[in-house]
């Protein structure tokens, strides 16, 4: 198990909090990174919704201008409360589970963890984290996509908790897990690529360069793999989650995949790739650097 030599805590308390620290550090680092990346996520969702609705494709710069002109600058941070809550649920869970299983792997394989083991625990931690965080993720997508529907059909959500309340009222409690399947599959693919690739590349580069260069290069490489593997699932997730109760456009994951593929080909799923990568890579880099810095400040011991 990872040990944190926290100087300001007495010894009995140190022992008690040790198992929970990887979870807390993951949630805090993910939340801080989200504060910086939220506008990019908003733009990514708009790109995906435009593609799904066969609307005119805009460049990222024109998309920003359109959003700011129509909805105001602060709309770029629409859903920030939901995004932070999602990180506190999703990233707390996935990083905590991944770090715990990763430390077990170091003992099991004498410090030389095989890549397939990293992929396996990435899948597990991502899937569990996504299930826990799906209510907040659904609320975030609903808030961000509301302005894309005709005015007479908009929900006009007033905030994160108002969105949660209305989802529960209109869809029932189980409605919080609408679109959970693609969310979980997306999370499994992104975590498999991100965490396993990051750890493997970091291990290979560490002997040769400064640790911060290692974090940036490793995060950038893992960001490419993460974006490429997960974007189709992210596209489907957004399409399913934006649906309102009544007459949904899609019957499920498979129908959503087939319908969009027939209408736009494989390129439709990658319509927002550049924006998605610019969200994923910086978020990965920031989250992992913050995680390393916070862990080090708390006296993490290998």
UniProtKB/TrEMBL annotation:
Gene3D superfamilies referenced in this protein's UniProt entry, alphabetically: Mitochondrial carrier domain (1.50.40.10)
Membrane topology (UniProt): Multi-pass membrane protein
Transmembrane segments: 20-40, 212-233
Keyword flag Membrane: yes
InterPro entries named in the record: MCP_dom_sf, MCP_transmembrane, Mito_Metabolite_Transporter
GO annotation, cellular component aspect: mitochondrial inner membrane
Family: Belongs to the mitochondrial carrier (TC 2.A.29) family.
Name the record gives this protein: Bifunctional Mitochondrial substrate-solute carrier/Mitochondrial carrier domain superfamily
The species this protein was found in: Babesia duncani
Lineage, opening ranks: Eukaryota, Sar, Alveolata, Apicomplexa, Aconoidasida
